[in-house]
Design a protein that fits this description.
Blueprint (H helix, E strand, L loop, with lengths): L1 H20 L5 E5 L6 H17 L3 E5 L6 H8 L7 E6 H10 L7 H4 E17 L7 H10 L5 E4 L5 H13 L4 E4 L3 H9 L5 E5 L4 H5 L3 E6 L25 E9 L4 H14 L3 H9 L3 E2 L4 H22 L5
Parallel strand pairs: 1-2, 1-3, 5-6, 5-7
Antiparallel strand pairs: 3-9, 4-7, 4-8, 4-9, 4-10
Helix pairs in contact: 1-10, 4-12
Length: about 325
């Protein structure tokens, strides 16, 4: 018994020691999106501060493709030592298992959540010439159109797409989905009245907003955001509890020592308290994250349950 206890104590000491000495070499953050994207911005902003704390280079590796699954697959298959991290988001983490018939990894089994890095609400945009000036006016208008409305999204199975499907179901109107390859063409389709509405993140629409070509009707956070205090929420506009966020967070390969995961979590939480980091995130319209690995894991499970039901109802299935 004493020998077994000594063995367990030795293992515990070894884990603690590995967390204290980690990292002893460069840490890589895989970004499953192109350079210049919001995920890339988050990785580089946090990486700059983490480099100072860890006294090691923090390298950003952009692996865009397959709706974010290419990058997250690389993280899932990396050595379980905490030296390869990845920024996962809704699509390849919470939506993918419900949409794709086959994935190269299982998010729940092959990846460990470390910390929520940020979230961002979608906004409902219509053309500047649209008769609706408020969300209730838009819903009343939409119901009168029957099934003649086309709505844009930034891609099939995206947060943009699923948010509108949730809102359609909640508000009780019909509309046909028209997917585009990203926010710029989707926004232009609304501005030119090719489509009649779009949910996406606000920064992507800034040129069209500043040019007076589109109008925002509501935001999908539960509370009004600091950067858009005059824009009402969907929840306060007649649909209590409505919330739809685009979110992201750090992950690493399953099997990584718990003490290393806790060390990364603690350091990222400290970095996100930095005034400069918070201001940089706010300028991008990002709501800064934080919290424990367990809290992030629970959040992901709730998101998967919520959006899985919408995906099943709509019948989204991707090969």
């Amino acid at each position: 018994m004493k020998k077994a206890f000594a063995l367990l104590a030795g293992c515990a000491f070894g884990l603690a020691a590995s967390a204290q000495s980690w990292p002893t070499k460069p840490v890589k953050i895989v970004v499953p999106a192109p350079a210049g994207s919001s995920l890339d911005f988050i990785a580089r902003t946090l990486g700059d501060k983490l480099r100072d704390r860890w006294k090691q280079p923090v390298l950003v590796d952009n692996k865009a493709g397959a709706g974010g699954m290419l990058g997250m697959s690389a993280v899932a298959k990396a050595p379980a030592d905490g030296y390869t991290l990845g920024i996962g988001f809704n699509g390849p983490i919470a939506f993918g298992p419900h949409m794709y018939k086959k994935m190269a990894y299982d998010p729940a089994k092959d990846l460990l959540p470390i910390v929520l890095t940020s979230s961002q609400p979608n906004v409902l945009a219509v053309a500047a010439s649209h008769p609706a000036k408020t969300l209730p006016e838009f819903v009343a208008w939409a119901k009168k159109q029957g099934n003649k409305i086309n709505y844009a999204s930034v891609g099939a199975g995206s947060s943009s797409h699923l948010t509108m499907e949730l809102f359609k179901s909640t508000a009780g109107f019909e509309a046909t989905h028209v997917p585009f390859a990203g926010s710029p063409p989707a926004g232009i389709s609304v501005a030119s009245e090719e489509t009649q509405a779009l949910f996406t993140v606000a920064p992507a629409l800034l040129p069209l907003i500043q040019g007076g070509r589109i109008r925002l009707l509501a935001v999908t956070s539960l509370k009004r955001t600091e950067t858009m205090k005059d824009l009402p929420t969907v929840a306060e506009s007649g649909y209590p509890g409505f919330e739809a966020l685009a979110w992201n967070g750090l992950f690493t390969a399953a099997g990584t020592p718990p003490e290393v995961v806790r060390r990364i979590n603690a350091d990222v939480n400290e970095v996100m308290k930095d005034k400069g980091v918070r201001e940089a995130f706010a300028k991008q319209g990002l709501i800064i994250g934080g919290g424990s690995p367990d809290e992030f894991k629970t959040f992901i499970a709730d998101e998967s349950l919520k959006w899985g039901a919408i995906i099943k109802k709509v019948g989204i299935s991707i090969e």
